[in-house]
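User: Please run a holo structure prediction.
Assistant: Happy to. Please share the sequence and the ligand.
User: Here you go; the ligand is cobalamin.
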Amino acid sequence: MSKKLVNAIADMREEEALKLVREMVEGGSEPVVIMDAAREAMAIVGQRYDEGTYFLPELILAGEMMNQITDIVKPELAKLPEIERHGKVVIGTVAGDIHDIGKNIVSFMLDVNGFDVLDLGVDVSAQKFVEAIRDFQPQVVGLSGFLTLAFDAMKEIVEAIKTAGLRDKVKIMVGGGQVNEKIQEYAGADAYGKDAMAGVSLAKKWVGVK
Ligand code: B12
């Protein structure tokens, strides 16, 4: 069933993909399994775009499918046995960048792994991050970005957090498409996470949970 879902999303068969997700939910599949299939499909979509077989309309449709799948799966989380909450995370796609598929997966995985997540959405300014840290008081901040110009935005956000006197209150992780350890260093963040599970591991480590 997972493989079928991966193919349906990757091949842009929207109705079939959503039907499969509903069937998987009804059949008791774990939300994480469904989201993992969706993530695998998105990687294929990305490849096809890079190879020149897919263009912007396919990417937009893929983004919409991801959002619809998340909407179907999210309510299922509430039905899971209550898990211990470990801490709080503020996350967002940085200013100038609207790619949110990867960030949404990270948000989702943090949530199912016991974190209260405040997702600020896309194109989030340094000011918004600073305000959210003051109000929500997270232990962890996640900055997502897929464009090259996101690297400077990440640096500006970390600087603004420093200027606001909040830098020692939070650990900051960065991730997304072309982000790597070098960008993490450039931005002045604490760590780089290559995927959603890496983000979960970092957050757990920082709040002292195994
Ligand atoms: C889908 C997509 C889009 C969709 C986005 C839909 C959406 N709702 O997000 C749309 C069509 C809107 C889009 C628009 C654009 N895009 Co685009 N897009 C892509 C594409 C194909 C896939 C990105 C994606 O979502 N991948 C799927 C996810 C799941 O990927 P992932 O990396 O595995 O995600 C994991 C990690 O990154 C990590 N992660 C992510 N965030 C975080 C955060 C933290 C804290 C942690 C720990 C981990 C983490 O966890 C994720 C889950 O495991 C990439 C190409 C590619 N192959 O990557 C181009 C790409 C990113 N886009 C690109 C460009 C240029 C654009 C546009 C400027 C195009 C245009 N001319 O308008 C606009 C940007 C507008 C803007 N201001 O942002 C370029 C960027 C080039 C660059 N160097 O800057 C790319 C690389 C394509 C290319 N090869 O040229 N795009």
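The pocket of cobalamin is lined by residues 39, 42-43, 46, 49-50, 56, 59-60, 62-63, 96-103, 105-106, 142-144, 146-148, 173-178, 193, 195-196, 198-199 (CB under 6 Å).
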